[in-house]
Amino acid sequence: IFMNEVFLKYLTAPTITSGGNPPAFSLTPDGRLTAKNADISGNVNANSGTLNNVTINQNCRILGKLSANQIEGDIVKTVGKAFPRNGSYASGTITVTVYDDQAFDRQIVIPPVLFRGGKHENFNSNNQQSYWYSTCKLQVLKNGQEIFQQPATDVSRVFSSVIDMPAGHGHVTLTFNVSSYGANNWTPTTSISDLLVVVMKKSTAGITIS
């Protein structure tokens, strides 16, 4: 029977298949739906399955556990910058602000920053040898409060830190001040390694420490 148009109040059929070869749509008695394309304007509820090559255009919330072999994105954020210099010596300020814009606790990790001054020879008018020192000083502030300050001459000093950042406790601003000076107001020669700041989610999943 071939019908151009038909209105059926109820339809019961063991299998429904569209035209075409192969069919673009089919529904079998066991509830299996096969379709080449689908536009769904309402809700989709599924208990299992597989999605390949999909894009989530807007926000997605995962209430359960997420396991992933590869992740590209901002689970871990890093920022790096070289300290300012004035010719032969380090001098200036770097300010880093980590915004309290996530719902989970995070940690701010600062890998080692090495800084040092120097020891210099000096000869007076009588050709007598003496030494003078360049000093490099690093000061670190967290939200305006000093958490580190040390000078270094000819022996390197190191600063590194792990700072907890609980969610909802406000932004964290870190200020790194480096300054240099020489004995007798002579021009110093100092050095300091680049600053790297790593921000990551705080979690102990899969880790024990004792």
UniProtKB/TrEMBL annotation:
Pfam families from the entry? Answer: Ig_GpJ_C
Where in the numbering of this chain does the Tip attachment protein J C-terminal receptor binding domain appear?
Answer: 88-210
Q: Which InterPro entries match?
A: GpJ_C, Viral_Tip_Attach_Protein
Protein name in UniProt:
Host specificity protein
